[in-house]
Design a protein that fits this description.
Length: about 425
């Protein structure tokens, strides 16, 4: 019996030793012993290299504005582990988390005893989410984010009412494949029989694989730039303004409070998805709820303005595509500013490519490292950086407490890289902010 929050997290994290083991057998085994709680919920399933969390946030905010109770399952977390399982944006309580773990522990042990295969950490957390939403605290809808890929991801036992694939990029290639086509084929695995799917995957980046899967599953597929498109896009001081068209449906001057052109694409995926469900009679939502929900939606760690004076921005650009989006956003929203950047990454990421993109938007760059098993060293990052003005910041905590004092009105500091790093530094930034 797990009695405390610390014991619960220790047990969950102890499953990390079993690594990443794609496959659905262990999940199906646990679900069967739990009474298949995943079949009790209306799920929207979201996969993609980037943009999953933001798309979830837009969907949740709009559905909340329409009066629905919405559960979310996301990863990773920025502040507390509990964020991964949330209701209406509020993380599950530690008491409920302990209770869930005590339900799952004997189930996981039974599956391991019967099959010789131990459920992984992510499988345990996924099973906890299904049981929580399917039995203990049932919402109107659950927004379910894949952990890795799609076809063999533990979330893929879900029976969704709609599937979303945001995009494809070169990430987790050791598991998903060496090409965008292979990666897209894995993500397309979330498309289910006669269940509509929406995607922003581009031609030449795996769209043909997604089309093929949708056709094989007799699923209607709605493609960005073909079945819906952004007609107008203009940045404003608090985010972006855009207009969206899908056939005879038009939404003019939608406003979001997240920054970057890529966020308007994520928002459009969310709007089109709910519009499709509205036409099917699954969701009742007004244009006012759509507009208000979009504007209220936020997602920590994605071009998050921690401080305006001095200007400090936090962004979890943890892969090449994320770095490209961040670089573009800085050039638009940071125009005229002298941009200083603090960066670190995991050693299994394309940090060379990421730095090449980020250096296009930075006047100076500081390379650091953090306490994490797969973190790249600052010296390795320094050696691959091609920036003319680069330095090693060996202790990021000292840097973040001292460097902001040197920032002038025309300067901005962008802290970016691994989401695990962003989670750590965000807490320090928020604590230090009061001294700025």
């Amino acid at each position: 019996m797990l009695g405390t929050y610390e014991e619960t997290l220790d047990w969950i994290h102890s499953r990390l030793r079993f690594g990443i083991k794609p496959g659905l057998g262990r999940m199906n085994g646990m679900m069967e012993k739990l009474g298949n709680p995943h079949t009790n919920i209306k799920t929207i399933h979201i996969a993609g290299t980037n943009g999953k969390g933001s798309t979830v946030s837009y969907l949740r905010s709009m559905l909340n504005e329409a009066g629905y109770k919405v559960g979310t399952f996301t990863s990773p977390y920025l502040e507390t582990f509990n964020e991964r399982i949330s209701m209406n944006g509020n993380p599950i309580s530690s008491t409920d988390l302990i209770a869930l773990a005590n339900v799952l522990k004997p189930v996981a042990e039974a599956v391991e005893a019967e099959t010789g295969e131990a459920p992984t950490e992510f499988e345990i957390i996924t099973a906890m989410a299904f049981y929580y939403f399917g039995v203990q605290n049932q919402p109107d809808f659950v927004l379910l984010e894949t952990g890795l890929g799609g076809r063999l991801d533990s979330t893929n036992i879900a029976e969704p009412i709609l599937s979303i694939i945001t995009n494809t990029g070169y990430d987790h290639m050791n598991i998903l494949g060496d090409t965008l086509e292979e990666i897209a084929a894995e993500k397309a695995g979330i498309i289910k029989w006669e269940t509509p799917a929406v995607t922003a995957v581009e031609a030449g980046k795996g769209l043909s694989q997604i089309r093929s899967k949708a056709s094989a599953m007799n699923a209607e597929l709605y493609v960005y730039r073909e079945d819906f498109k952004i007609d107008y896009l203009k940045p404003h001081s608090e985010g972006e303004t855009f207009s969206l068209t899908a056939g005879a449906d038009h939404w003019r001057d939608l406003q979001i409070s997240m920054y970057g052109a890529h966020q308007t694409v994520n928002a459009s995926l969310a709007v089109i998805s709910l519009n499709l469900l509205k036409k099917r009679g699954t969701v009742q939502i007004t244009d006012a709820a759509i507009r208000t929900g979009l504007h209220k939606a936020s997602w920590s760690g994605r071009y998050e303005i921690i401080s305006r004076s001095p200007l400090i921005v936090l962004d979890g650009a943890h892969n090449l595509e994320g770095a490209q989006s961040l670089s573009q956003t800085i050039r638009i929203h940071g125009a005229g500013k002298k941009v200083h950047m603090l960066f670190t990454a995991l050693e299994d990421k394309d940090y060379s490519g990421m730095l090449h993109e980020l250096e296009k938007a930075a006047d100076s760059i500081y390379l650091t490292e953090f306490d994490f098993p797969r973190a790249a060293s600052a010296s390795v990052l320094y050696n691959v950086s091609r920036a003319e003005n680069k330095q090693i910041a060996p202790d990021w905590k000292t840097f973040i407490r001292q460097f902001p004092e040197e920032l002038g009105n025309g300067d901005m500091l962008v802290v970016c890289g691994s989401l695990y790093f962003i989670s750590q530094i965000r807490q320090v930034l928020l604590e230090t902010k009061r001294n700025f």
